[in-house]
Amino acid sequence: MKREFTTHSASETIALGRTLAASLHPPKLVLLRGNLGAGKTTLVKGIAEGFGAARAEDVTSPTFTLIHEYRGPGVILYHIDLYRIETQRELDTLAIDDLIGPDSVLLIEWGEKFPRFVAERDVEIVLENLGEDERGIWVVG
Amino acid sequence: MALILGIESSCDETGAAVVASGEKIISNVVASQIATHQRYGGVVPELASREHLRALVPVVRQALAEAGQTYQSLDAIAVTQGPGLMGALLAGISYAKALAFAAEKPLIAVNHLEGHIHAVLLEAKRKGNGQMEFPVLALVVSGGHTHLYLAAQYDAGWTYENVGRTRDDAAGEAFDKVAKLLGLGYPGGPIVDGLSKHGNPEAVPFALAQMKHRDRNQQGIPTGARVRFDFSYSGLKTAVLRYVQLHNLQASIDARRNALSSIAKPTVEDYLGLCDAQTFNLIASFQRAIVDDLTSKTLAAAREYDAETIFVTGGVAANNELRQRFGREAAMEGLPAHFPSRPLSTDNAAMIAAAAYPKFLAGDFAAMDLSAESGLVLR
To answer: What's the pTM?
Structure first.
């Protein structure tokens, strides 16, 4: 199944994330694809709110910190950013398999760099910067 | 004199240091610098538990050897409890606990962010002016963090209140992502800093989000909480990307990236030869926007909270323009601004051992069931 959305501001992207949370029942492995500035972290702000796991303003970029964890009722949300991870060996040291459990939802940025995640993903969300504040968002799976 | 061994493993770097009474660094070792570690696996960043585990023993041994100390001659062992990557933190904590148990030494848990703040005190004490007027307003700014803490003294130790933080990207992350976007190398902070002085910082006007506000609840009603000074750098990154697209810079960026990829260790001259005036202007304007924002919000917070002293610390505190601007503008308000030495700006273990000293004096020791907290809050 493929769904398509357009948002016109960061707050609309957050609102979309809130509604998407309802279709991401754990366990799930979700790939977030999109270039720099496409709105991946902004969408995660909404998804985390939708799960009741964090306030939008508490969700920040995991580029340096690599893995952020948010806990909500019946769900453990992991926001993972593989932007800095280049090799399989570096990926192995993150032990992402240890995070997968019955209550877990993994939202992975730059996961498409590794064929394993492309093969194993349950849902793929593609974001594209359409200019100014407009974003195209496609949800597959 | 109290000798404290500090161990840091919260993110990319494994470090160990011996610091005397929170003011004199006897040794300070980080894994990426030592040959023994390179023999074990080269320059892979210490991304997580297994890398840290491999690095911990040689790093601690070297820190003790350089200090001329043994496990027995130490007075306490301090370790970073958080915030950071769970597996990475656990590696350091497990090792520190085992060491403390075996050597029968007290164990002290330290918040990584408090460590950064104490890196400033280490430098001030080295210069002989460790007496601070409180409250201290501390800007902790790095690749992973952008926080403003108001610090007060409480007995021997310090207490903290967060009065500002980033809503999206940390300032150091913006430096790295913009450098990569422009086909420059990693880490981006020092490169952008070095190239900025060759451009006109007023060439490209970047507007940054202003987020001074009172805390509001979900209905948008003020909660009566104190004024906050939050940061946001995600939009700035996107604005640079938009500038690149509007001015068709992509072809020259790709050419620069290709040229740099064939140079093992690019020098400043290499970068200078591969950038044109428009790129220098873009880089200088980007840095100016971040420096403006960090200084103006920090000083506004200092006025709001009647701070007597300003600290600027974390990896981005090594930035030259940021140091100059803070020095100048804080002085205009009659406030002293303190920085760590450049080597202590980035993650290190000396700051952990230094931050542990007031806890050592207070007998504030960790239990043997100490565990990592990836989202540990500084209070």
So the answer is: 0.93
